[in-house]
Amino acid sequence: MEDNICMPTIGSSAAGETPVTPSVRAQLLATEHWSLLASRTTTQNEVLTRIAIFLTIVSAGLVSLALVGQATKFSDAFLVFAVVVLGFVILIGVLTEFRVRSVSMEDLMYVLAMNRLRAAYTQIDPGIGPYLMASVHDDLMGSQQTYDFLAHRRSFSHVAGSTMVFIAAVNAALVGLFVAGIAAIWGAHLAVIVTVGALLGGVYLIASITIGARKYFEFWKRYVPHNPSPEVVEPR
Q1: How far apart are CA 89 and CA 178, in angstroms?
Q2: Distances from the Cα of 101 to the Cαs of 32, 209, 213, in angstroms?
Q3: Segment 187-233, tens digit of pLDDT
Q4: What is the Cα–Cα distance from 119 to 138, expressed in whole angstroms?
Q5: How many contiguous H segments (helices) and E segments (strands) does the chain have?
Q6: Burial, 55: exposed, middle or buried (Cβ in 10 Å; 0-12, 13-18, 19+)?
Q7: What b/e string do you get for 185-224 counting C-beta neighbours within 10 Å, with b at 16 or more?
Q8: Above pLDDT 90, what percent of the chain?
Q9: Contact 225, 137 (CB under 8 A)
Q10: What are phi and psi of 27, to 5 degrees?
Q11: pTM across the whole model
Q12: For residues 194 and 177, what is the distance between their CA atoms, to the nearest angstrom?
């Protein structure tokens, strides 16, 4: 299927209007491209700063727990202090996780938008198509190619090593410590404390990943690509 069937022809003009030259259209598209790149960079820098602040708070909270524990000889007062500090750190962590998840979807939006612009570039000059490693298609397959030029798809390692999973894992560990601290205040046995903490921490991690994956796939169910990838015909 030709590209001009999937999207309007870049070189056309409305009736009665002065025709715009391909060079002017290329400049307009390039301006939009740079605007998307600048917005994407700003968003990435903002979320990285947020993550750095969160990890600093986690480090400071754990160090403070160690110092207070030594001073109080890990008494009941220390347990109460630990629960309060961990509760505050978890609050910051959950808010950070929300922002990371939102930025992940925003980044996908930028990738799809720039894929559309590349499709417009190839309409102005079809000869540049073979030199573009990023995709010109604004669908799931096109986004995966842009995220990974070589594999053309996102593997398990990409997802497991993502920032969203990293923050979820840190929050899961904090939730486990928080629950273990509450169980210790109630006088639970050590085995119960460890089991409950590990179990609820794991539940939090699985729930966070499930929520992120559901939001991702629900987006693709609603989204209608402007220039979808051509169907691949399997050889018989």
Answers
A1: 10
A2: 25, 10, 10
A3: 888 898 899 999 999 999 999 999 999 999 999 999 999 888 886 43
A4: 9
A5: 7, 0
A6: middle
A7: eeeeeeeebeebbeebbeebbeebbeebeeebeeeeeeee
A8: 56
A9: yes
A10: -65, -40
A11: 0.81
A12: 9
Tokens of 194: 């460890």
Tell me the one-letter amino acid at 48.
L
Q: What are phi and psi of 148, to 5 degrees?
A: -140, 100
Report whether pLDDT(107) > 90.
yes
**Vertex 187, ends 186 and 190: CA angle to 5°?**
120
Tokens of 168: 């979820």
pLDDT digits (tens, 9 = 90+) for 49-71: 999 999 999 999 999 999 998 88
Residue labelled with tokens 């220039």 = 227
* Distance, CA of 112 to CA of 222 (rounded, Å): 14
Q: Identify the residue whose tokens are 């990285």.
A: 48
Chain position carrying tokens 């605007």: 35
